[in-house]
Amino acid sequence: MYKITWDKETGGVLLHSRIVEGTLGVSPRPVFYEELDLLGLDKLGWSYPHAEEPIMWAVNKQYWYRGVRLFDAKGANIYTKPTLEMQPGVEPMALEPVDVKTMLQRTSELMFVLENEAIEFIRDTYLAYAKVNKTYDKADANKLDFEAMAERVEKKSKQRMAVVKQDCDSFDIMPLATAEKEGKRVLLSTKIDRFIASFSGGKDSQVVLDLCTRAIPPTDFEVIYSDTGYELPPSLALYKDVEAYYKKKFPSLRFLTARNHESVLNYWDKIGTPSDNHRWCCSVMKTAPLYRMLKVEGNKQAHVLTFDGVRAEESVRRSGYNRIGKGVKHSTVINASPILSWSSVEVFLYLFRYGFPINIAYRRGITRVGCIICPFSSEWNDMVVNHTFHEELEPFLSRIEDNVKRNKVQDFRNYIEDGNWKRRAGGRDIHSSSAIDFLSSKPDLNVMMIKPQKHPLTWISAIAPFTGSEKQGELKYRNEVYSYNCENNGDVYSLSFKNTAKSLALQGLIKRALNKATFCINCEACEVECPTGALSILPKAEINTNKCIHCGKCLNFHETGCIVAHSLKITEIPKNKMKLISYT
Fold first, then answer.
1. Most exposed: 22, 27, 280, 362, by fewest CB within 10 Å?
2. Contact 306, 321 (CB under 8 A)
């Protein structure tokens, strides 16, 4: 939020409310002795204390000490540490840590304004939705869903709309920009079942959690940590320390941990390694277990308001986020981002100011705490992880190495160093006994399924009501009736949906439903999309037809209807080697 310059006297930074001489274009990060040891600076004749305070700062891979650029780090990858390229005239010297106490004094006024604005935002957001909850509790007959009304108008007008309070307790729907310009009061209508602070083990979620404890009664929100199975060891340790600290301070504050029912390495074997095209791990290991935990009575998805640590500085995509967003990651979740405009410097200043522990991963040089391995991680973070948490990384790295060797890549080490494993486009090299082929689509949709994981008709009822048996029946879609046949010959199923060519939308939904039945491994990802609780994945996949409203969310949440189907989509059918056709 503020502009940043070096403070050569303290070795730290200064904050400014406007651009001044020496303003930095990129927010720096503090560098601790652990990172310098990893880089081998001590072996090059430099000396520095093993202090709690940072020693210097890094801007990208440039290392700065008291306003002077000393050296750059070049050429890091998952196997190889970087080389250090000294700036002209720079010789080994004795380094002193940042005078954090004085730095905090010099930045205290602007940080006071920043953190109190964030606290007010959290409090105001919480109170606004808490007031909605009270309204619902007092008047159960109040069925007006203002936000749903606005959404319907948005679809027609192609612009953001808002429901606003008018005189005499009436309301109106108008463009959001107009409402904001005229100072209208935008009405909220979503009843929130649970307020949560999402904790990841990173610095941003640390700050947001503490701000929440300063703004909201501890009885009115809860802290949830998603243990993906990829967690860095210090993140898990920090979560335990954070829980112990706040439980002592606020005994009524609840801490919960969400986990998938299955190991992430087992999913690697079934779905394949994650890649930039197949980033299934977030949906399966983080999102699904989290929102499955948040379900309410009747297996329904809860309406949740999450205070998160998203910051615009982190990526171009996040820079476009609104501070309050509905359905950003899930349709029943409202995300509120109190520190959206904060820089990483301001986040660290907050942690320093209140004496909170710094995740050891940051102290060792990791720029962004997350999973131990990720197709979107930088070569730098891969290097730090492999050299500091090698034992925990090894099971994942060895699988990557085995896959690359099995594909007979000549120089597998260079292949992995260059990050080519992160660009897997399909499932050609993943073994699956299940397969599907869409044989024809005019006038009938004819399909062959081999060893489907679930019965072919398991998800058909999500499309529309159908009657009949597992062998034949009728599907009623948009007031039209379509018959189907399903024949079984051992491991092979042959299905035909009659005259469906006249409805491409129906054919698309049937394909998605059959993809799911073919490849479903009970990953949980689609269950949390169901708004009524009709779909259950564990202990087995089934749809309660009394609850299903045929909204299609369990089919449309992914481009093929199923994460596994998408990951394996070019796998060949066993025996006759027929290629799978493109999914639509």
1. 22
2. no
